[in-house]
Amino acid sequence: MDGMFEMAGFTVRDLDENLSFGSVVEGLDREALTDESVRKQLRDLFVQRGLIVFRDMEPTARMQVELSKVFGPLKDHPTTTTPRDEETGDHAEGVIDMHYVPSDDVAKGEGLVEMNGEVIARYSPWHFDHCYNDELNYAGVLRAPINAPVGGRTGFMDGIELYRQFPRELRDALEGKNIIYTLDTRLSRMKFGVNFTPLTEHSTTPQLLKEAAKFPRAMHPAIWTRETGEKVMHYGPWMAVGLEGHEDPEGDRLLDDVAHEINRLGQGTSAYWHEWKPTDMVIWDNHRMLHAVEGCDAKYERQTLRTTIKGDYGLGYFEDGKKVGEVEREIA
């Protein structure tokens, strides 16, 4: 897709002329979302581009839910400890609240890491959502009512472009391989592509660790092929613990080398880094994209709200053969 064009009263343009993915939609309102022809146009655009930035949206959870439902039914988060947003008045809508409030004691800040000589909060390495499940969600919709004046960007990396740009030797070594993931989000336990020093844990509570212990390990392919024919590199180093069938030094070296290359390409044309406004909403294809948060100074408050859209690609599975419904009943 090139340039800008109009769709039923709103405009669509490429996110960046240097990127092979992503679009910007402007002028969309709640009334337009009731038009099925508009909804289909947005769904088709999303399949093609993988990422849409919606500008100047009504900044409410209800609008976020209505936009999300254009792309599919919503899915609640599988862990009970994840905070939900109260604005919708219905937890079944699945709006989760990721809110960092600075502490007077910086040492207690959430997810503090040291990177490039700076201490930052709310850092999240490259990953895809629900990697620790056998079923992936199709997409996420994110908005940021409160963001730091400096930093706090969210990065999105396209797996199709990542596959094209990746060094052939490393890419070929991953073909046909499955990667093992767990629910343990502690940055101090991250194994691959570590380019920071963890100072405190990341959103980890004793209850979350109990839930993590009940989740079997999940397997997902490092590379998969879409129905449209493109190959997708889909390895998220955060929460990855090993290579299926090669949980040994050789397998770990491969995953570490690939993870560091992902970090490097994440600063190039495989990735887009979004600077948030309160009226922005962003949807990304979780089967195709990786995402990350660069973090910000621990003195700044930051809040993001996310909805999750159902729709599995059918390639993941739990190590012990359980299904996600069984696991969720066990931790309830």
From TrEMBL:
Reported cofactor(s): Fe(2+)
PANTHER family (alphabetical): ALPHA-KETOGLUTARATE-DEPENDENT XANTHINE DIOXYGENASE XAN1 (PTHR43779:SF2), DIOXYGENASE RV0097-RELATED (PTHR43779)
Organism: Novosphingobium malaysiense
Alphabetic keyword roster: Dioxygenase, Iron, Metal-binding, Oxidoreductase
Stated name of the protein: TauD/TfdA-like domain-containing protein
Similarity section: Belongs to the TfdA dioxygenase family.
Record GO terms (molecular function): 2-oxoglutarate-dependent dioxygenase activity; metal ion binding
Pfam families to which the protein is assigned, alphabetical: TauD
InterPro entries in the cross-refs: TauD-like_sf, TauD/TfdA-like, TfdA_dioxygenase
Keyword Cytoplasm: no
Domain called TauD/TfdA-like: residue spans: 21-307
